[in-house]
Amino acid sequence: MTPRLWDVIGARKWGYALSVLLIVPGVIALIMNAAGGRGALNWGIDFTGGDLLQLKLERPFTVGQIRAVVDQYATGESVIQKAEQEVFIRTRPLKTQARSDLLAALRRDLGTVRVLREETVGPKIGRELRNIAILAVVIGLALQVLYISYRFKSIRYALTADAALVHDLLVVTGIFALTRMEVNSTFVAVLLTVVGYSINDTIVVYDRIRENLALRTREPFDRLVNRSLLETLARSLTTGLSAIFAIAAVYVFGGVTIRDFAFGLMAGIVTGSYSSIFNASALLVDWHLRSERRAGRSQQGNASPPAAAEPQEPALGSASPSPRGASPSARRRRSRRR
After folding, report:
1. Exposed, middle or buried by CB within 10 Å (0-12, 13-18, 19+), for 219?
2. Domain 50-121, what architecture?
3. What is the mean pLDDT of each run of 10 residues along the chain (338 residues)?
């Protein structure tokens, strides 16, 4: 199959359209959640503050039984998740006495209750952690711009790679907003892992583009980029699928506590592989073609049209035209004057 049949760069507008379709629902979910007073994301106690209890019960139970007890001590929204004989309870910040009374009530109604994990985070600490997490992602993107610009001797590669990264982060964040999965410290790990994986995949493609440019062929830039993509496509797909299969096993067999983390990683790897092929390289081509058009217009504007040759009068003392070159009427007038 010839590369012409796989014209990825030629179909880059379809790639842009698909990216918009992936991002817009998540953005709408963020806005609607914030307008509804539920928070743009389902922030966990790591960012908002509160108590987290992981308990193991000996007797069978239902979420309704647990909620009936929890609502007596933790007014407001509480999140309760069941995993076989374990239960995860996330509530607003509770005082020490209220937390002890809650555990005592659970033991009274449901029998033996063993505390596997107990965490408390204050609201102020939660806000600080959230701000630090956002700052960490921003600093990471900025440092990548500097490093890629230095390595590739052009800021075009850095900015287009970061644009693809922003696409990946928006898609992953939108998925968490749509599904209302809890956003805690593991979510920050998901974002940073997605950034690392996506930029690695993009750099592999960019490095092949740089190698092909060094060959100094007379191939148009968009054709050269398309050929570079096809040369690295098998590697990108193999790496992405291998990572997805491994993380899918963790999602299925790893337990409920790690499922959100594994799901976020799978979504990030899928969108990271997609953006490195259909977004980063396509943006690089569009930037190059636009620069060429702008340079062409600049050269046309600077080039002045050749001046028309003006007839020159004979200088004083110069020889007059030969009578042989004059018209017949001019020769008759001269003969009369003589």
Report:
1. middle
2. 2-Layer Sandwich (3.30)
3. 66 92 93 84 77 85 84 73 82 82 86 84 72 84 87 90 92 92 84 88 91 85 91 90 92 81 92 91 92 74 49 44 50 53
